[in-house]
């Protein structure tokens, strides 16, 4: 037989559940406020004590109301936070299993795809998915099997909230760890985010890809174009993360394609600058800056990579970038990169000297980091003409110099 105290506790629980069942939206909102305030951070046993061993009865009501109303956004943030108290409770694995049994993961993923819902609500949904993923490998697999990677990646790419984007990145990072069956799917999902219009989403995706790279091993060829496009970003934080991922990919089979694309970034079409709008010109300068800087880093870290870059005519491309007086930063990066190649490879020194002439070459070697600030327009033309398709044009310029 139950004690009087236990009977009173059960009556209290039943009264609470009847209040919930009969309450309308406003009253339920107040109940949720009180529940969140009183129970945040409690363990599973503490929740059971609070609900007289009947906490699961309240969780079942919360999940049922969620499934019925999530499309309308009714008290959605409070509802998700309340469910989160159960899912995050220490020694409360039973609550997680109960939530999953009623299709909780699918409901959370569907919330992410509803355009009319608030960012705050979607962020709470992502946080619940984090709790599911952090529970172990089989739960990560469940999310992935439910097409979760695509939904989360799309949310990361389209979200306008920095906080929500960071939560989505944490979730994708979790799904990419300790989940060998689906880690390639997560990797490709992150790559799919790179062409989006949000610099923050690009930055977060690149960071996560770099962390995942060692576990993935061989990168898919589909990463090449999106990564090269990220290097063209006018946002320095995106360029930085793209360069870091680029370095990690130098041990992969995609290296030749990446190096070829990097060299192409440095070589604009002849007289391109006259036809560019200011916005496009800014993007072009960003490409050249990133191209020269990344090549310098890669060449210094690996003699093999440096030799491959030379075979891809990076020297000519660097000279063209040095002649671009529209952007001093690009000139500086290109100059620093070129002096490395000249000092490391005698054949490059001879090539550059022949291409630009003794006077310009000596000026370059005397002060490679600042010489471009003293370069006149005629000398810049000689450098920019290093990429001419017709060698006789370059020869004519050099003859005029002499």
TrEMBL record:
InterPro entries: ARM-like, ARM-type_fold, DUF5578
Entries under Pfam families matching the protein: DUF5578
Top-rank taxon, per record: Eukaryota
Name this polypeptide is given: ARMD1 protein
Phylogenetic placement of the source organism: Eukaryota, Metazoa, Chordata, Craniata, Vertebrata
């Amino acid at each position: 037989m139950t004690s009087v105290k236990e009977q009173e506790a059960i009556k209290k629980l039943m009264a609470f559940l009847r209040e919930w069942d009969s309450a309308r939206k406003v009253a339920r909102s107040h109940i949720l406020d009180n529940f969140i305030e009183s129970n945040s951070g409690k363990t599973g046993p503490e929740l059971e004590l609070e609900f007289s061993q009947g906490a699961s009865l309240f969780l079942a009501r919360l999940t049922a109301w969620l499934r019925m109303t999530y499309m309308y956004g009714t008290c959605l943030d409070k509802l998700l936070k309340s469910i989160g108290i159960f899912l995050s409770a220490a020694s409360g694995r039973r609550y997680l299993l109960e939530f999953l049994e009623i299709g909780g993961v699918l409901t959370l993923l569907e919330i992410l795809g509803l355009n009319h819902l608030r960012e705050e609500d979607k962020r709470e949904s992502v946080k619940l998915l984090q709790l599911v993923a952090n529970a172990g490998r089989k739960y990560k697999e469940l999310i992935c099997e439910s097409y979760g990677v695509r939904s989360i990646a799309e949310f990361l790419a389209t979200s306008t909230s920095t906080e929500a984007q960071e939560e989505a990145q944490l979730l994708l990072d979790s799904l990419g760890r300790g989940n060998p069956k689906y880690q390639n799917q997560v990797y490709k999902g992150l790559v799919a985010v790179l062409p989006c219009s949000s610099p923050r989403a690009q930055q977060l995706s690149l960071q996560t890809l770099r962390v995942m790279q060692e576990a993935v091993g061989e990168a898919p060829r589909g990463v090449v174009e999106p990564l090269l496009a990220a290097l063209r970003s006018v946002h320095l934080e995106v360029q930085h993360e793209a360069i870091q991922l680029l370095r990690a990919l130098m041990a992969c089979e995609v290296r030749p394609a990446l190096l070829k694309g990097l060299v192409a970034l440095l070589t604009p079409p002849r007289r391109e600058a006259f036809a560019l709008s200011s916005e496009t010109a800014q993007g072009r300068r960003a490409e050249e800056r990133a191209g020269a800087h990344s090549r310098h880093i890669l060449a210094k870290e690996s003699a093999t990579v440096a030799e491959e870059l030379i075979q891809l005519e990076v020297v000519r491309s660097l000279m063209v970038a040095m002649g671009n007086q529209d952007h001093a930063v690009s000139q500086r990066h290109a100059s620093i990169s070129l002096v490395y190649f000249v000092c490391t490879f005698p054949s490059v020194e001879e090539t550059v000297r022949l291409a630009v002439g003794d006077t310009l070459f000596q000026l370059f070697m005397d002060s490679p980091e600042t010489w471009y600030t003293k370069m006149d327009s005629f000398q810049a033309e000689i450098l920019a003409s290093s990429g001419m398709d017709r060698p006789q044009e370059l020869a004519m310029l050099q003859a005029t110099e002499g």
